[in-house]
User: Fold this.
Amino acid sequence: MATGQKAQTVSAPWSVLRPKGRRHKDLYVALLFLAPSLLGLFLLQVLPIGTALVLGVSEWNIIDPIKFVGLSNFVEVATDATFYHTLENTLYLTVGLEVLNTLLGLCAALLLKNAMRGIDLYRTIYFLPLITTWAAVAIAWRYMYSLEGPINALLGPLGIDPIPWLSRPEWAMPAVIITITWKTLSWKTIILLAGLQSIPNEFYEASSIDGASRWQQFWKITLPLLSPAMFFALIIGIINTLQLFDPIFIMTDGGPADSTRTLSYYIYTRGFQNLRMGYAAALSWVLFAIILLFTLIQWVLQKRWVFYQ
Amino acid sequence: MKLRRRETVSLQLVTALGAAALLFPFLWMISASLQTLQEVEAFPPIWIPEVPQWTNYVEAVVNYNIGRALLNSAIVTTVSVVGQLIVCSLGAYAFSRLRFPGRDAIFLLFLATMMIPHYVTIIPLYTMVWSAGLIDTYTALIFPGLFSPFGTFLLRQFFNQIPISLDEATLIDGGNHWHIYLYVIMPLSRAGLGALGIFSFLGIWNTLFWPVLVINSKELFTLPLALAMAQGQFITLIHIQMAGSVIACVPVIVVFLMLQKQFISSIALSGMKQ
Assistant:
C-alpha cells in the first residue's frame, strides 16, 4: 500500500512537466534502461519456469530425445514411498529447526538487546556463523561429529557415551538440525532484535509503575508486540529451510538410510544423480505447492496469534 | 529498564557462554588447521597444537587447488556483483522514474517470480546451460548472478524515497534521464546499493549448489566447490581441509567486520538470508 502511494506521488510531477499524449516518450528510454533486466528476467525466470512446466509432464535424461508422458510423473510422485519418506524428513527438519531457532533466537535477541560491556563484540560473534561459507563450516562440523571428535570429547565428562552422530539414522537428523541452528540462529536473532527495539520503552515504564513483574511484562507486552516479527521470521524461515542444500550435501548426502534426505535434496538426487529431469521437475512443482500451502495456512492462522499495533 | 548489578553480571555471563558455544566450531577449525596429521587424528582430541603448522596453509593453496579456487571465486563474485548492481539499478530506475505502458504489470511479473522456489528454475537452467555447451565455463558460473528480481525490487524501493524535485532540477539544467540516474539517483542510493552488494557478495561467494551442477574440471572450481570436492578426495587430510575452510571464511568475515552495521540493518529491513 505504502509503496503504491509513493509510486504515485513520484510519477505525478512528470505528467505536469510533460503535455498529455507524450506519455510514451519515456518508452524508448525505459526500453534502454530495462533491456538488461528484461533479458535477465526472460533467461533466468520466464524461460526456465516455462521449461519446468514442460519438463514436469515429460521424461528426459538429457541425452535421449525428450518424451511427453502426461501426468504420469505426478502419479508416480503420489505412489513414491521415498517421496513420502523425504516429506517426513522435511517436516522433522522444519519443525525441529523452527522450534530451536525461535527459542534460542528469542533468548539471544533478549540478551543482545541490553547495553552491556562488550556488546558490540558479542553481537559480532553471534552473527559470525550466518555469513560464513556453508561448505567450509559444514566440513568442520562433519569432523566435529566424528565418533572420536571434539563434540563427543566434550560430552564425555558429562557422562554421555560417544554418540554416532552422522553414522546412525536416528542421530543424523538431530545432528544436522543442531548444525543448521548454529548457522541460521542469528538470522532469527536479527529479525527479533529489530522487533524488540521497536517496542516503545513507555510500555515497560507504565507497566512497572502499575506494579507488573518482569515475567508479566514479557508475556503481556514483549511477546504480543513481537508477534509480527516472529510471524515474518517464521514464514521466511520455513521457506528457506524447505530449500536447504549445502549442509546436507556436505555432511550426509541424504544418508544414512535416507534419514536426512529432504524433499529439496530428493529433487537434486532424482534430477542430477539419476538424471531424471522430468521427474525432478515434477517434484519441484510439488515443493512449490507445499511452500504456497504452508504460507497460506500461516497467513490464515496469523489472525489467531499475531498482534498488530 | 534499569537492571540491578547482579542481573547485569548474570546476563553478561549467559551472553558470554552463548558466544563461546557459537565460536567453538571456528576455534576448532583454526586449531585443526594448524595441527599435524597425527595430532588431528589423536584421541582424545588435541585442542591446541604443540607447534602451529603454518605450512598446512601453504600446502592447501599450492598442492590442493585452493589457490586457484580462491582466484576463481574472486573473479566470479566480482563480475557478478558489479553486473548485478548495474543491471538492477538500471531496471529499478525505469520502474521508479519513467512512465511507460505496462510498467506496473511488468513490475508485478518481477515480484511474482520471487515466489517461485530456486529448485523449480534450477533444473531448466541447468539443461539450458548444457544445451548451449556452456558446462565448465566462467559464463555458466557468472550469468545467473547478473540479475535478481529481488535486487530490482529492493533498489526501486530506495529510489522511490529520493525526492522527485532533484530530477526536475536536473531536467531544467538541460540534463536527461541518464544524467539523473548517474548523478542524482546513484550517489543518493549508496545505502541501498551497499545492502544489495553485501547480499549478493555473500550469496555468490558462498554458493555451492550451482557450481556443483555446472562445473566438472578442477581449474574452474570455486572455493565452496573445491572444499566440497577435497572432502571426498583427501578424506584423511583433515588438517589441510580445515586450512582450506579457514581461507574460504576469511574474506567474508573481513567484509562483514567492515560493513557489520549496514549488514544487520539490511537484514532487519528486507529479511534476506544467505
